[in-house]
# Entry
Amino acid sequence: MKILFYDTKKYDKDSFERALTEFDEIEINYLDADLSVDTAKLAVGYDAVCAFVSSDVGKDVIKALACAGVKLILMRCAGYNNVDLEAAKNNNITVMRVPGYSPEAVAEHAIALALAVDRHIHKGYIRVRENNFSLLGLTGINLFKKTAGIVGTGKIGAAMCKICQGFGMRVVAYDVYKNPELDFVEYVDFDTLLKESDLISLHCPLTNDNYHLINKETIEKMKDDVILINTSRGALINTSDLIEGIRSHKFFGVGLDVYEEEGPNVFENREDDIMQNSITARLLSFPNVIVTSHQGFLTEEALTSIGRTTLQNAVDFMNGTLQEINVVK
Ligand code: NAI
# Structure
């Protein structure tokens, strides 16, 4: 099985090369370039391509991959909202992913963002480096005995519920399905979660039904001084409405690992660029907002698990022994 690997970063190559030692039957070639209609043409002679959450796996790219003879798209991630599944089906291409490589990695990043904005760690760090040891403006809020509202209690949401329980918080959740593992969680309707939570953390996938789940109306229903965390997908939040909410002092803090329009930024060093997008620039200008660049997944354990499962997916495809849970339909 020959795999063409797109948008390779050093940490990707390191972890996949480690995983490859267990898979003799696989050969990988790594490209710096990400998938596009043009680069898809380079996949001639390859059985599969490996792409990430930020790759363009839309209709035209899939068509180009099919023309190149590709039969399998290996997503080295859990989310797949960037893949046109209908186009994949129509072009007879199987799409596989890594559903639960390390839920704790993302949940731990979510709580890291929550604690950072709550305790102003980003400001404290800079202040002390400048020999400014003043504490003015750094007062936080205890999470102990507060209410955490977790939206989506699948693998990552469940890990987040357990972390919040460990902090001594009351944990309420909203999900279409109740997770039977979480007997300490109170499932409530979405409006109740908005109304009662001091910390709201989003852990549901982006679907047609929940695009801009957080908007002007839902923000108005939240408690004043709420902390909002999104490590899921940017478009769950209407950024313009969020900015209005921040301007009207609704939020104690906002932590975003994902945001709308992150596409051109994700994993790129753009320090010499003049940023053209005023919405993102505006978001970055607020003192109570921390933005990271889709790094929730980035732990050693998660990368190892992603490498292994992605290559196992390739082997299973080759042997016709697909694990249904890893196939995206
Ligand atoms: P999962 O499939 O285990 O759980 C998702 C849960 O969300 C399910 O329980 C589902 O019933 C629920 N859900 C679906 N629609 C909902 C809605 N409208 N409202 C409330 N709940 C809803 O997925 P997992 O592994 O927990 O991942 C969640 C999301 O986290 C992924 O879809 C992805 O967008 C994001 N993610 C982010 C990463 C990062 O690096 N920041 C890395 C990995 C995933």
